[in-house]
Amino acid sequence: MIVPLFPLANAVLFPKTPMPLYVYEDKYCTMVREAIAGD
Hints:
Elements: H1 26-37
């Protein structure tokens, strides 16, 4: 299984806690779309 990673500097993520992200690079936009689609 390939697990894509989204690099975030100086960020701590907690389960079920929303974090607004501004995704503008093509490779990350594709990654986010595929993750939402369930791929």
